Amino acid sequence: MMEAAVETRAAPDLETAALMRLTGVGKKYGSVTVLRDVNLTVRAGEIHAIIGENGAGKSTLMRVISGHIQPSFGTVHYLDEDVVFHGPADAEKRGIVLVHQEILLAEDLTVVENLFLGREVTRHGVIDDRTMEQTAIRQLAALGCTARPWQIVRELSIAQRQMVQIARALLEEHRIVIFDEPTAVLTASEVDLLLDTIRALRDRGVAVLYISHRLDEVEALADRITVLRDGNMIGTYDAGTLTQQDMARLMVGRELSMLYPHKRGTSDAEPVFEVEHLTVPGFVHDVSFVARPGEVLGFGGMIGAGRTEIFEGILGLRPAKAAAIRVNGKPVHIRSVADGFEAGIGYLTEDRKGKGLLLRERLAPNLVLSALSWLYRKIYIDERIENEQLDTAIRRYDIRVRSRKLEAGQLSGGNQQKLLLAKTMLQDPSIVIIDEPTRGIDIGNKSQIYSFIDELVRQGKACIVISSELQELVGLCDRVLVMKDGRITAELRDEEVTEDAVVLAATVGSDAVASREENARDRHHL
Amino acid sequence: MHVTDTTSELVSKESVFQRINWVDLGPFLALAVLVVVGYLINPDFLSPTNITNVVTRATFIGIIAVGATFVISSGCLDLSVGSMAAFAAGVMILFMNWLVPTWGVNAIPAGIVFVLCVGALCGLVNGLVVTLGKIEPFIVTLGTMGVYRAFITFLSNGGSIPIDRSLREPFRPLYFGTVMGIPVPVIVCAAVAIVGSFILYKTKFGRRCAAVGANVDVARFSGISVGKIRTLAFVIQGICVAIAAICYVPRLGAATPTTGLLWELQVITAVVIGGTALRGGKGHIWGSLAGAVILEFIANLMVLSDFISEYLVAAVQGVIIIVAMLIQRFSRRS
């Protein structure tokens, strides 16, 4: 039904008055200008995508519009007057809301309590749980979120939390809704539902500003596209006039010769890593697989399908049982990440800020944190040694830093990921497991990380990539194992690796259920 | 690759002023201000005798604070140090008194070795219960605080455990003696701090300790054994408490149920004033020492001046820890 609305939608109405107009807006931190001379109009009833590499100034621009920061230059004209927002609450009162990329929910409260936090519905001064519950159920159903109203947020998957956060933003009517990378943690079917919701918002006359790294989404969704590069506004384009290649070229400022390196093809070498009958209670049921040197093995599936948990189980980070785990044919007993390094297994977490790097520590100590025992033979730490390692890593992995004394948290996402990769590779693992190698990373860095992965596989290492990005699995992996509900449902090799095949294997059961329900509903309507 | 070559220039262009880390210097600046203020209030404050006395008194808290810097840096907390000090002092005296008839004065070195072992053991108990039992360190050490305190009350029968008369004289120099005019406890304290800062800043253990405190998950994913590091931090704390007890025993010549009462509060205050974040991360050993001296200076100034009753010393110290936290928060934001 929603699709019908989309199809009959008229072309963007050029007569629509601008809801907001930015003129010459810029932002300066100290002596560093991170955004300059942005002239942007936001119209009611449009989906306006903002694209650009990390550090291009997208988030800064959105934070200006949503009142989190005030511009250093230029004026913001909103609803026929020049405005200065005093904080996000002020902007929200005037009808502008930002859905953050990070999940900002109170983990120990329930879904309903989070949705209505700070704006609880009361009756005669007493909290009115029933009204809030009903609103919550309606709102969550509209987003296709499976979280129950009285579930504690801590128990929810990341995707469910993201949905709750979006539901919270949409609880009240706004004139401008800004989504900052809303789909980074969602899987294909969840993304589809969210995109439908966003289209419905637009059709109600809301202006939607949409930031995403996923150009396929932008192409499918946006009416107009504004491109930022290095803090400059490159231009605003009608979506129909740009292909994904055009967008990438405008963002990067050069032709992207090729995002993915040439595939190597599945390998038939002796497996370097064998896992037999692994069970991680509550997440993974009886999973067996092998990884061979010279190929990239992908793990696909929905978030919550148990992909990350397999490897956390193997590395003793959560309780798990396996009939056998072998490295180079020899059984190993791994109880900790340290044992894993010992056995030649390196694991890059998907959560590089929370579990990968010490954000407030300098680069060199971060780089060598896992390597202290072999790097320093003497009793004391000689900082020259780690600084040499840092120099090597900066050259080897092209980490762009303006000073070596920076803290890891001051690097961009792409450079953090490169630092984390360098940190893991310092252990010289023969099996490299990379969980979401390019989450939240711009295209330029993405392509570099892919070529690093290609390089290490060609050196004869085995590489396992866990990814929620279909394009990445298809573009990078020679063999893909697809998981659903803690089990491996498909093994795809070489040409069999297509987006459709992965989606099918990841959703096969739930799709059947959904179509049955849909049939029942349709019958009911008849 | 080419970008980085120019960056070293950028760094060297930073002015000396910018390169000074004001947060690290904070406690020492505060100490300097306090000295000036103290002199203005009462010139006697700066007399060599007074300064010597005050600094010597600060050494107990200072020595324990060095150990506490490890524990807090690793993201834990030890509330049991005051009770542990009393317990360690008590068993040390009992052990030496028991040895005196056969060993004579040699009972003193034997007692020192013994109490160091007791301290390490007490710390080990704290650490193992925290790490193996996976219980909040606050709760565990709240428990052992009661346990160690009850032990000393039980051993002393509610009274005091005096040191054997024959040991009193030979033991005296450990608190009252001086080397080149510097009181022995001050030298001991400095030695503890030097060894402590070497361990914390220049060894793998120190690195790992700070990493565990800054982010447990990162440490675990980096292959660091969080339990081992934290347990070792508690053991170091225990050894420091024992060293403080060794210096403390000759001062009063006895251990009583009130020995070391509320020391845990002063120790934690000293560490926090010193710039170590209570939630863990980078530890500031010399800052902790400065913190301990600041606390003692303030108490001394309140006695020397007539502005505030000395009965309010604890109140002022309480306010100081809150202000120190506020300053930390303020400086973190910028």
TrEMBL record, chain B:
It holds the Pfam family BPD_transp_2. It is found in: Cell membrane. CDD domains: TM_PBP1_transp_AraH_like. The chain crosses the membrane at residues 22-42, 54-72, 79-100, 106-130, 137-155, 175-201, 232-254, 260-278, 285-305, 311-327. It is a multi-pass membrane protein. This is ABC transporter permease. It comes from Chelativorans composti. InterPro entries: ABC_transp_permease. Keywords: Cell membrane, Membrane, Transmembrane, Transmembrane helix.
